[in-house]
Amino acid sequence: QLQLVESGGGLVQPGGSLRLACVVSGVTLDDHAIGWFRQTPMNEREVVSCISRIDGAKLYGEATKGRFTISRDNAKKTVYLQITNLKSDDTAVYYCAAKTRYRPLNDICARARNEYDTWGQGTQVTVSS
């Protein structure tokens, strides 16, 4: 069974940077695209980014283009999310997610959260001075 564990969150000042990590276990990273989402108490969970394995295709949410960079290390079974120039609006719980329902689609990135069925526990990012 696929499991995802996020890490790397914390308290950071505006303008700072963080690198979040999502470690995949249970199956090889090769089989699944991995998405990053974020959620605040007032907002729905929104897509931050996603990366597929077969062609390395990436997507970014409209609010996260430019300052967010996704990458993967298949040997370490880890997907990273680098965030620069952090803003207070980036404060949220960040989750990584995977699709496992239909194998032909598992490695295709998607923006809709309901296309993902496996989620990590989340890591809190707080941007504050």
Please tell me about this protein's structure.
- This protein has strands spanning 3-7, 10-12, 18-25, 34-39, 46-51, 58-60, 68-73, 78-83, 92-98, 118-119, 123-127.
- Strands 2, 4, 5, 6, 9, 10 and 11 form a seven-stranded mixed sheet that branches. Strands 1-3-8-7 form a four-stranded antiparallel sheet, with no helix packed on it.
- Helices cover 0% and strands 44% of the residues.
- The protein contains no helices and eleven strands.
- By secondary structure, it is an all-beta fold.
Which keywords apply here?
129 residues; 7-stranded mixed sheet; mainly beta
Question: Helices and strands in order, then pairings?
Answer:
Layout: E1 3-7, E2 10-12, E3 18-25, E4 34-39, E5 46-51, E6 58-60, E7 68-73, E8 78-83, E9 92-98, E10 118-119, E11 123-127
Parallel strand pairs: 2-11
Antiparallel strand pairs: 1-3, 3-8, 4-5, 4-9, 5-6, 7-8, 9-10, 9-11
**Largest sheet, described in full?**
7 strands, mixed
Tell me the helix content.
under 10%
Number of helices: 0
Beta-strand content estimate:
35-45%
- The gross shape turns out to be globular
Q: Could you tell me the mean pLDDT?
A: 93
Tally of strands:
11
Structural class: mainly beta
What's the SSE pattern?
EEEEEEEEEEE
The radius of gyration computed from the alpha-carbon positions, rounded to a whole number of angstroms, is: 14 Å
Give the N-to-C terminal Cα separation: 40 Å
Low-confidence stretches: none
Task: Summarize this entry quickly.
By secondary structure, this protein is an all-beta fold. It has strands spanning 3-7, 10-12, 18-25, 34-39, 46-51, 58-60, 68-73, 78-83, 92-98, 118-119, 123-127.
